[in-house]
Fold this sequence. Notes:
Layout: H1 2-14, H2 18-22, H3 33-46, H4 50-65, H5 73-97, H6 118-124, H7 128-131, E1 135-140, H8 146-159, E2 164-168, H9 169-181, H10 185-194, E3 197-201, H11 210-223, E4 228-233, H12 240-244, H13 247-257, E5 261-266, H14 271-277
Parallel strand pairs: 1-4, 1-5, 2-3, 3-4
The structure holds adenosine-5'-diphosphate and magnesium ion.
Adenosine-5'-diphosphate (ADP) is lined by residues 103, 107-109, 112-113, 140, 142-148, 232, 271-272, 284, 289-291.
Amino acid sequence: MAYAKLSGALLVQKGAPIAEAVSVPRVTAAPTTREGDGLLARHLKSLKLPTFLSQHQRLAQQFTSEGLDPSGYLLRLAEAELIERERQLIERRIKQARFPAVKNLDSFDFAAVPSLDKNRVLELARCEYIARQENVIAIGELGIGKTHIAIGLGMAACQKGLSVGFITAISLIRELLEARDEQRLLRLQRRLTGYKLLIIDELAYVPLTTAGAELLFDVVSQRYERGSTIITSNLPLEEWYEVFGSRQLASAVMDRLTHHVHILDMQGENYRLRQNKRPQSQRQGNGAGRGKRTEPGVGRG
Ligand code: ADP
Ligand code: MG
């Protein structure tokens, strides 16, 4: 009440009573337990503390029945609120990334790709390269696991709360062309530049139109030293010229991408074909990590 009097006095001077200014419900008499619960629920909602709301009674009971020091009660509630917020942020990041499937590095069989340094990939999964705005280019034949690795790195970034976007090169160019035609290119470019990590999957040998190649170049140059980009391709860098249809444009793209880059050279046998050749009992993880698979609560294609 002392606070209400004090703030009331201060606000009277400014001519605005507190109840009108911020509409804080005032309790004049001690509330009954039910009134108190209702008010507390409303306050916790206004303060956007849903985990306080859902857990305070259970925790209070636990503290009472276990005779715990009540001074730890608020700390436990605050921790529960923070953990829940972090969980929701990660879930949101995974959803916003629009991965085509949920893949993790845990389910990647590194022995199948001897040219790929597992420690290097695990180091990348710590996401420090994103803080340094470095890029990753994964190169290898179809079915070697490039997309799997790219999603795994994307998931690792989401787990750190970073914003991630996943898109195939073809869809990206289609979206850019559509956005240009519909006069909303700037908005799309801003979104693409905003991701801490943008994954452009399957830059393959489909020659781009000049407009498509230029729009892709714009994305790469707008992201240069602002965010990290992962590109997967079945073509070695020397052959990217053919995709861009212009040596000048391809050099400009590669120049920006490879200034700070980690190249993942992935050589080996197509993973699925290799799995299919093996007897059922020897197949990796009984299919774990293979095909489109969505785990509950995360990622929607
Ligand atoms: P790419 O993008 O190189 O064409 P993908 O990443 O799409 O290949 O791999 C094809 C399928 O095989 C996916 O379901 C992927 O999860 C799986 N796969 C590929 N390589 C591996 C591996 N080394 N360990 C586990 N799964 C793999
Ligand atoms: Mg792929």
